[in-house]
Amino acid sequence: MFLESAYVLRYVTSLTSEAGGYLRRMRSLIFITGLLAFAVSKPCANEGSNGELILSLNKDLLRSLESQPGLPNPSVHLALRLSNFHNLAKENEHLTKLKNDLHNAIQNSLSNSQAVVGLLALYTLALKSSCFDLNTVTFTVSDRSEKLLSQLKKQMDQEKEHITYSHRPLTNYYQYSLGVLALCVSSIRVHNHVSNKLIKAVEHEHLKHGDIESIDTYAMAGMALQCVKDSGFQDTAELSTALTKINLKLLASQRADGHIGNEFSTGLAVQALLAMGSPISECAAAMEAMRTGARNNVYHNPMAVSQILPALQQKSYLHVKSKECLTEDDTLVLEPMEPVLVSPSKTKVSVMVEVITFSGAAAAYSVEVPKGSSLLEALELLQGKSTGFTFKKESSLWGPFLSEVNGEQARQSDRRYWHLSSDGNALTQGIKDFKIEADQKITIKNTSY
Fold first, then answer.
1. What pTM, to 2 d.p., does this model score?
2. Is the confidence at residue 248, as pLDDT, over 50?
3. Is the pLDDT confidence value at 19 over 60?
4. Which residues on adjacent β-strands are paired with residue 352?
5. 279 and 273 in contact (C-beta within 8 Å)?
6. How many other C-beta atoms lie within 10 A of the C-beta of residue 398?
7. Is 142 helix (H, G, I), strand (E, B) or coil?
8. Could you give the residue ranges of the DSSP H alpha helices within 130-172?
9. Three-state SS for 232?
10. Are 429 and 437 contacting, i.e. CB atoms less than 8 angstroms apart?
11. Interatomic CA distance for residues 104 and 113, integer angstroms
């Protein structure tokens, strides 16, 4: 099941007041100009150590096909197919799993009338990247068989109608953008009344989670609308204005270290900038930041790797449209790896966990955990102490996320999620990926979006 929370966990830059935001963006752009002057001298081509890094990331994704629990990940497949290097046997094995396991999961969600436009769109992009005939893919719902693209169009119509009456999609604008992109790269005409909803959302700055602007969503919207423009479906002043605004939003969100938004939104942001025609020099600092992050093992989550790998090879999801599966490289070989046994640290750190419910009521708990434990491990230890703290989790493409804490749910249907922060700073990683290295206070708050 493709849930909002899977993307809510990817926190991005916060808003300021309109005047303060303008000044901040101007200062940022002035700084970035200097940063780019330095970064542009660094090679963007995949040569030397950069090429070795890309091969290493490619192999990490291939290994994740065997080690990741849950459903096969269409985003990982998409990145592998867009890469310049391939292990076609493993990619074909994964394609089969997508067509069986993921297909059946989506069909079950459709049968239960769940909104799954994001996952359906990623599935479409993954199949398209393997040059699979989309017209042969069908879903059977309520004894009726419909083609994949027909189901995607139906899901998009439901999202569009919800925007009309509720001023927001059933899911979110990230998934809505993915739907537009998947239809467009599949050469399906995206009607103006569908793309206009996204254009208006950009114009009115609705691409947010609560009061927080979503750089991921701006990036996905940029790729979707650029595809619409390139396809000749629509070429209006409003569309051009929206693309310009997205470009400026992404550049203005660039940090001093080169990342755009944060470490986990930079991959999509660079893809979007490249898709929208930005020169490589404009992305050089962000690419160098991603390479540095990758060498420092920041991107150990396969979903994160799947978004930076195309960007580091100067590609975007728009390349799926012209993808030809002919004379592909098939030289990528995985060397055997010795299992790495990691012993728990003998050093203990103290974690205070604060839970704030929907009503605003707060409860506090404390637990000691081995240094380097994941937040998930810390919560499991706390739950095992029988202090009254309980939680449930669900799976997503990014890994597990909290669905219920102390008996209270934060559900997509209610447009709520459990917001996580450490010492007041929003987490940019999920509960399995965030590591606890020092004493800290973790706040878990039932939050609307």
1. 0.86
2. yes
3. no
4. 366, 441
5. no
6. 23
7. coil
8. 148-166
9. coil
10. no
11. 14
| Residue, of 99 and 9, whose pLDDT is higher | 99
pLDDT of residue 448: 85
Alpha helices in 256-361 (DSSP H): 266-275, 280-295, 302-312
Q: What six digits make up the tokens of 78?
A: 């998409």
Among the listed residues 212, 278, 210, 268, the one whose alpha carbon sits nearest the alpha carbon of residue 243: 278
What is the phi/psi pair of residue 400, to 5°?
Answer: -70, 150
Quick one: tokens of 358?
A: 């929907």
Report which of 248, 116, 103 is spatially closest to residue 172, judged by C-alpha positions: 116
pLDDT of res. 241: 97
Q: Which residues pair with 108 in a beta bridge?
A: none
Q: Nearest to residue 107, comparing CAs of 116, 94, 97?
A: 116
Amino acid letter, residue 73: N
- Which of the residue ranges 336-340, 357-361, 420-424 would you say has the lowest mean pLDDT? 336-340
Distance CA 122, CA 181 (A): 10
Question: How far is 106 from 72, CA to CA, in rounded Å?
Answer: 12
With cut-offs at 50, 70 and 90, classify the pLDDT of residue 26: very low
pLDDT band, very low/low/confident/very high, at 48 (cuts 50, 70, 90): low
Query: Six-digit token pair at 20?
Result: 């303060």
- Angle at which helix 237-252 crosses helix 215-230, to 10 degrees, equals 150
Query: Which among 251, 253, 255, 225 has a CA at the least distance from the CA of 240?
Result: 225
**Parallel, antiparallel, or unpaired: how do β-strands 425-426 and 416-422 relate?**
antiparallel
The model's confidence at residue 336, banded by pLDDT at 50, 70 and 90, is: confident
